[in-house]
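Q: My labmate handed me this sequence with no annotations at all. I'd like to see what the chain might look like in three dimensions before we decide whether it's worth expressing. Could you predict it?
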Amino acid sequence: MKTLIIVTHPSLDTSVINKSWVEELEKYPEKYTIHELYKVYPDGNIDVEKEQKLVESHGSLVFQFPVYWFNCPPLLKKWMDDVLTYGWAYGSTGDSLKNRKVAFAVSTGIKNEDYDENGRYKYTLEEILVPFKATALYCEADYRSFFAFYGAEYNPSTSEVEKSVQDYFNFVENI
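A: Here is what I predict for the chain of 175 residues:
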C-alpha cells in the first residue's frame, strides 16, 4: 500500500525545506500520496469522513510539518482533534491506526544545538515531539520516530537542502 504524507505547512509555496521534500516525493506517485491540508482545507473545515477513508486506504502515515512555537501548525492539531475520533482511532472499537506505521517529519527554524538540555530552549526536539509520539502510541500505531531538519531560518545552503531531501527520502522509504 502507498504511504500517505500529510503535509501541513501554511505557506508551502515559500518554504525551502518542506517544499523540497514534497517535490522529491511527488516524483513517486505510485508510492506516495501527498495530502496538503492547507490546500485542501483553506477554511479549516475538515471533512472527517473523507480524511478517515483516505487514511484507511493507505498503509503508512507520515505527518510532515514545520515546528511552530514548539508544536505543530494549528490545522494539523485540528485535523488530529477532528479525525482521530473515539471508535475510529482509539477506544474499544477504534483500531484504524492499530499497527499502522506512523512517523513524523519536521523542519525547525532553530539550530540543532539549541534543542538540548544545555541549549537555548532546554529541551530536545524528541522531548518536544513527545505528544505526537504519545498520540500514535495511544492509537496503538507502530510509531517509527521522526526525521528533522534543523536551522531552516538560517538560509540553508543548496547542498544542505539537497542532503536533507535525500535523507528524508531514505527515511520515508525505510518506514
